[in-house]
Backbone:
């Protein structure tokens, strides 16, 4: 028989997790009829709060944990730098501090959760880099540890807005759709997409936006979709293949790919002038060389995540709770390229 958790109990009763938590820890906040129904269900199920959850409720340290993700290159790592800076500012305004830690894998990150809950008395965690089959969210939910994620839950069958945990994400598909339409409006009828290997939630979302824009314009996408690992060299190689298939413009899943693609297209299509390439993340490098790019509102995402966690940890009123699931719109920053060296 499956173990009863706060989440499963709340789901079976059709109430929120916060309501069950309030019945246990602050019963005066719950209407009498709801309180009695929840209390009866708790007795019948034999539910007992986990040690980690009990510790978090009774000894708040005003400290939140977040994993420092490895930097792939000196370009795209800046997006997480901006996010971390904004997260730190937002946490301080709410009276919290951040504890940074490193992990080699998701499994290692879970081990770090266990250790940090035991020795550092953290109140909760902020997750980044969500993906399909994310074991981290499953562990935190099972152990009733408060957390919020920068990135939606990726699943082929479940609606992310039905998720049991709070998250904030950026509408990457809307960003690449806008970028593709701009290139089409400039007269390009063969706009390629250069993205990450299939199975990347964020990467697949960005590809979908490109595909929507092409379909809306009645343009073919066959042979104009290249998948590659992230990086400038991969961008150059991908652009060479796309140009060979007739592409005159490219939308990329990252600025690293876009920088490589722009340099290669300047070499292969010198008569076209400035390469028609748009990246994603609007990194400082993209701004420095005049590369058009889709900008993510990382500061807004960070502020909302802290707001959600602070409200949850303070066991605030449900009527004033921030949105638990939020998708933010990106913005396209258009520039005129300065110069790119040949690859």
Residues:
């Amino acid at each position: 028989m499956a173990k009863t958790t706060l989440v499963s109990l709340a789901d079976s009763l059709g109430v929120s997790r916060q309501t069950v938590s309030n019945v246990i820890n602050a019963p005066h906040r719950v209407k009498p009829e709801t309180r009695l129904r929840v209390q009866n269900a708790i007795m019948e199920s034999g539910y007992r709060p986990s040690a980690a959850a009990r510790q978090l409720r009774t000894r708040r340290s005003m400290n939140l944990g977040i994993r420092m993700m490895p930097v792939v290159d000196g370009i795209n790592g800046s997006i997480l730098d901006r996010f971390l800076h904004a997260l730190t500012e937002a946490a301080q305004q709410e009276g919290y501090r951040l504890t940074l830690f490193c992990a080699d894998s998701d499994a290692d990150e879970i081990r770090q959760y266990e250790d940090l809950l035991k020795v550092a008395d953290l109140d909760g965690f902020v997750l980044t880099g969500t993906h399909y089959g994310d074991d981290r969210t499953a562990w935190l939910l099972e152990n009733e540890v408060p957390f919020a994620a920068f990135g939606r839950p990726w699943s082929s069958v479940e609606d992310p807005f039905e998720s049991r945990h709070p998250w904030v994400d950026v509408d990457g598909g809307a960003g690449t759709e806008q970028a593709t339409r701009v290139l089409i409006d400039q007269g390009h009828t063969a706009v390629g997409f250069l993205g990450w290997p299939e199975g990347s939630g964020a990467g697949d979302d960005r590809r979908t936006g490109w595909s929507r824009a092409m379909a809306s314009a009645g343009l073919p996408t066959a042979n104009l979709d290249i998948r590659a690992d992230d990086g400038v060299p991969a961008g150059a190689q991908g652009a060479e293949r796309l140009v060979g298939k007739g592409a005159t413009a490219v939308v990329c899943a990252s600025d690293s790919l876009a920088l490589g693609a722009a340099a290669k297209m300047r070499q292969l299509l010198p008569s076209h002038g400035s390469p028609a390439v748009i990246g994603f993340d609007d990194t400082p490098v993209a701004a420095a060389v005049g590369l058009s790019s889709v900008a993510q509102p990382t500061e807004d995402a960070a502020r909302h995540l802290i707001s959600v966690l602070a409200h949850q940890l303070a066991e605030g009123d449900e009527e004033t709770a921030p949105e638990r699931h939020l998708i933010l719109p990106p913005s396209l920053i258009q520039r005129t390229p300065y110069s790119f060296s040949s690859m």
